[in-house]
């Protein structure tokens, strides 16, 4: 089928972001390749980094917070003995050290980084300071004072060691800067260091199992074939309760109307619940003692189901 204009396209595309490409560039590229009128990503990956970058299309953009709030998993390599301005390979070297930590020294400091810890994000980041992104201020030579933040490291493992570097795997909360983690680990080890490789292996409910390379996507000749790679909206939701609603009640939810909690025999809950019709996500709802109220409605999906 030939497409001359952008269409309403709904679902998730899990891109394995290539090195050297910004997240917003991936958004623009995938919107073009799928001839979609609306899409967005779920959290910036630095151009230096690779790996899982979920792209939300159409109605899936309403679910972006559920992915950005989810846990992340990364694999990264720290090179010991050199500190850079950006804590990765993009910046100039600003400090040296002759110390290369031993295997046992590395293992000894890992537990200190597990749990809730405080991080000071790098100057070269997308965090906004007085309305401007920090990295833009830093590039202008302006002094940038980054606010500390609390993050949580669930697991941190040493995977492999090389002559002057080591590879790690970390499972962490949203807001974690792995570049800062690598820098702080080096400091604890009495040396300096920076990341020479960073790869996101999991983002929320998505991992590398469902990823596709941009090059592979481009090689698919027809737009309709590319769109077949889209995952359903509900694949982004994890650990969320579901209720099956009738077609009649699905229409009511789409119009902002509430349903009777008694009719569905459900109990009040503080967490959002997925209202499903024919196994498709129709709305996210809030359930109190008396009613089921729509919080987010996915009308494009409803139109296809009714």
What this model shows, in words?
This protein is an alpha+beta fold and 306 residues long. It is 23% helix and 35% strand. The chain has ten helices and 19 strands. The strands form four sheets. Strands 1, 2, 3, 4, 7, 10, 11, 12, 13 and 14 form a ten-stranded mixed sheet that branches. A five-stranded mixed sheet has the order 15-17-18-19-16. A hairpin with a 2-residue loop joins strand 8 and strand 9. The chain is globular, with a radius of gyration of 22 Å. The model has no long low-confidence stretch (mean pLDDT 90).
Write the layout of secondary structure elements.
Layout lengths: L10 E7 L5 H11 L5 E3 L8 E8 L6 H5 L3 E9 L1 E3 L8 E4 L6 H7 L5 E5 L8 E2 L2 E2 H6 L9 E13 L3 E8 L5 H11 L4 E11 L2 E2 L4 E2 H6 L3 H5 L14 E3 L2 H8 L4 E2 H4 L4 E9 L2 E8 L3 E7 L1 H7 L1
Parallel strand pairs: 1-14, 3-12, 15-17
Antiparallel strand pairs: 1-3, 2-3, 4-11, 4-12, 5-6, 7-10, 8-9, 10-11, 12-13, 16-19, 17-18, 18-19
